[in-house]
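Ticket #4471: structure output looks truncated?

Reporter: J.K.
Steps to reproduce: submitted the chain below (206 residues) through the standard prediction queue, then opened the result file.
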Amino acid sequence: MNEFEPLVLIVSGPSGSGKSTLVRKILQLPDTLLSVSCTTRPPRKTESKGKWYNFVSEAEFHQMVSRGEFLEYAQVFGRHWYGTPKKWLERARAQNKNLVLEIDVQGALQVKQKLPGAVAIFVLPPSRAELERRIRARGQDSEQEIRRRLERARKEMLNYSSYDYAVINDDRQRAAKEAQAIALASRCRVPLNEKRIRGILKSFGG
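Returned output as attached by the reporter:
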């Protein structure tokens, strides 16, 4: 029987905070697996199915909800649905890998309730002005959408105290190193290694 219990590392933050870049850096660490979320939103031109998201219809999504297939799910901006399939946690367990979830604040709070041992990182922009600049630079959103994203970011940041760590992404290289350091240090937490520690103690006869 496999006794490995993966570290579940949650990365979330406002849209435009740079969390995807930090997740890519964490995934460079060995024995790390990305949880691919499901969403009902249409793919962007640069996105391919199964890399960061699986794109499904609303009917498919709600069927998955009714079958209890999600670790967490939420409706974002009152429009599209996002969810983390439980199968990724099972896969991480089977493959002896640690699992990285890039999810929104609603989803992060749900996962922390269900998996108290999960480690949550909140990624923040250095200021409102910088976040607005990043959102505008993408050239994807209307003025109304930009205002909505900025207001949502403000509300999301009020939840910072629910997280274990905060990474302020004002310098990409430094923020990436901090995210990797958190991931590595979290692997050494005593509760995550208790079974192995007991095995070592047993080898000493006690």
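Triage note (M.O.): checked the attachment and the full token line is present. The chain has a mean pLDDT of 91.
Status: closed, working as intended.
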